[in-house]
TrEMBL record:
It comes from Xenorhabdus bovienii str. feltiae Moldova. InterPro entries: Formyl_trans_C, Formyl_transf_N, Formyl_transf_N_sf, Formyl_transferase-like_C_sf. This is Formyl transferase domain protein. Residues 215-305 form the Formyl transferase C-terminal domain. Keywords: Transferase.
């Protein structure tokens, strides 16, 4: 092996995972970060759009003097030719949402490596942090795999469990996974330098796959039980937020709820009550207290904004 191993980083332009990976790879004495491949111009990863603290991987790479490539299609012949000339030992893929073709994956001298924020083979695909919280899981994990031409199907190099207490939001789990992936990169680098990996195939009988959440996933379904609705709200925090519509078409984004210990008689899904400035909404089996809502991009106490609900004491929601 040479004194330094050449690496190409693939990440989204505004990625909160790509930014620390860039800093670690660019400063490590045994790594030569020869290029960063990132999003096309005017394309942002939706995960981070409304985060208060934002990153710009291209700007960071420019300051460090690292070559940045922003192809419209990562499979373009021009990019493949340019990356081949760089003669990298590894690709490191960290929150990059274009599919790498077999021809692209064959470029590294040793292997392409992907950091995936789930306990593979479970929760392959996009936005695992959303689905793990939505499904009320009690444990998550992060995985490092040797990439093949499938979708998150390659053999596992490393995996690290993450225990959950059941109160995490989607964005909190995403942040925790980013932090743990950064630590796992530091563990991986010595193995990369040695070029001596061991890995095990995924057991595909246990595989689950989830796509990008859609509008219907964020639309609250009060015909479900209270536990499910709470998980919906936590998973969608904070962007775009779990929401519903009043009969007049007004959209309300709920940011936090708890299952109420109060009893208001028969439960009819999709009813709202306002009692002593507190706001409650009914599900299939229980009442929920709405704690906070989104008002013009700010998280506001539902009690402080309770006049918004003063259309009637009870409001029938659209289905």
């Amino acid at each position: 092996m040479p004194n330094k191993i050449k690496v190409v980083l693939f990440t989204e332009i505004n990625s909160k995972l790509g930014s620390p990976f860039l800093r670690i790879l660019s400063s490590h004495p045994m790594i030569e970060l020869v290029a960063v491949v990132t999003s096309p111009h005017n394309v942002l990863c939706s995960y981070f759009i409304n985060d208060k603290y934002k990153v710009d991987v291209e700007a960071e790479a420019n300051v460090l003097g690292i070559k940045v490539m922003r192809p419209n299609k990562v499979s373009s012949p021009e990019l493949i030719e340019e990356l081949t000339k760089l003669n990298p030992y590894y690709f490191i893929v960290a929150n990059f949402q274009q599919l790498l073709t077999e021809k692209l994956l064959s470029i590294p001298n040793i292997m392409p490596i992907n950091f995936h924020p789930s306990p593979l083979p479970r929760y392959a695909g996009l936005a695992p942090f959303y689905w793990i919280i939505r499904n009320n899981e009690k444990q998550s994990a992060i995985s490092v795999i040797k990439m093949d031409d499938g979708l998150d199907t390659g053999p596992i190099i490393m995996q690290r469990p993450i225990l959950l207490d059941g109160n995490e939001t989607g964005i909190e789990l995403r942040t925790l996974q980013e932090q743990q992936n950064t630590l796992m990169l530091l563990d991986l680098i010595p193995l990369m330098v040695e070029g001596n990996f061991s890995y095990i195939p995924q057991n595909m009988t246990n595989r689950t796959y989830f796509g990008r959440p859609t509008e219907s996933d964020y639309l609250l379904n009060f015909n479900m039980d209270a536990t499910f609705v709470v998980s919906q709200v936590k998973a969608a925090y904070r962007t775009p937020g779990a929401h519903f519509y009043f009969r007049d078409g007004t959209k309300l984004i709920i940011l936090s709820v708890i299952i109420s210990t109060s009893h208001f008689g028969m439960v009819t899904p999709g009813k709202i009550k306002k009692i002593d400035e507190k706001v409650y909404i009914s599900t299939k089996d229980k009442w929920l207290e709405i704690l906070t809502i989104d008002v013009n991009g700010e998280e506001i106490s539902a009690s402080a904004f309770s006049s918004f609900f003063n259309i009637n004491e009870e409001i029938q929601l659209t289905e």
